[in-house]
Amino acid sequence: MASHTPFVDDDGVWVEILGQTRSAPALFLDRDGVVVVEAHYLHEVEKTELIPGAGETIALANQRGLHVVLVTNQSGVGRGYYGWAEFQAVQNKIKADLAAFGAHVDAVCACPYHPDAVAPYDRDHGDRKPNPGMLLKAAAALGADLAPSWIVGDLPTDMGAGRNAGLSGGVHVLTGFGPGLRGEALAHATDGFQVLGADNIDEARRLIPLLSG
User: Fold this and answer.
1) 3-state helix, strand, coil in the chain (%, to 5)
2) What is the C-alpha separation between 156 and 159, in angstroms, rounded?
3) Domain hosting residue 22, numbered range
4) Using 50, 70 and 90 to split pLDDT, how confident is the model at 1?
């Protein structure tokens, strides 16, 4: 596996490419509330905890030859609550915890923009979900095929990003913000984009054709 030093690109977005460039579908995953326990602006290593089933799901995706990509809105950086150094420390903990399951991610993209952030991050941005920019960046770097790819997220914006990027579908899970947003998430379904509901990532992997077949 090729290693790429993480960097903040010209858009101000964190980009880390760890996998080899090849034509394959991708499993896009939101981070907080999907892969790790929602901790509200997570930036402390000691609060970083994998959600049960996350390691197994990512390991299975690795075994199936899928690209696995974390795409995470990180307005905490834009709001000045923490910096990229704290973000990277959390990421290092996540990577180590996944390795214990024989799992790895191929790319990480993190967007600090939010209309309520501080300058220069105080606006919507093409990389902030539900915009598709982070998915498109990772796909371009990895050579991923977007059309058969899927996304798992705990927010309607995750489903919107998947739809806007031209994916096949998304799975909305309840491990981040609970069931209150399920209806809004399901409303992102179209003729070309399927949206399913699951309790957690462990259940989600049983619903995604790329993982369940």
Assistant:
1) 30, 20, 45
2) 5
3) 7-212
4) very low
Catalytic option among 10, 32, 158, 199 = 32
In sequence order, what are the beta bridge partners of 196?
Answer: 171
Q: Is 154 a catalytic residue?
A: no
Domain membership flag for residue 2: no
Q: Is the peptide bond before 148 cis (omega within 30 degrees of 0)?
A: no
Whether residue 30 lies in the annotated active site: yes
Among 9, 30, 122, 124, the active-site one is 30
H or E element at residue 75: helix 75-78
Beta strand 14-17 pairing with 107-111 = antiparallel
Flag whether pLDDT at 136 surpasses 70: yes
The values of phi and psi at residue 149, to 5°, are -80, 160
- In order of 33, 51, 82, 171, 185, the CA distances from 54 in angstroms are 11, 6, 25, 14, 21
Total number of domains in the chain: 1
Sheet of strand 107-111, all strands in order from the earlier edge strand to the far edge: 7-8, 14-17, 107-111, 67-73, 24-29, 144-153, 169-172, 194-197
118: in domain: yes
In a domain, residue 90? The reply is: yes
User: What is the reported pTM?
Assistant: 0.97
CATH number of the domain encompassing residue 57: 3.40.50.1000
Q: Is 91 contained in some domain?
A: yes
- Compute the radius of gyration of the chain from its Cα atoms: 15
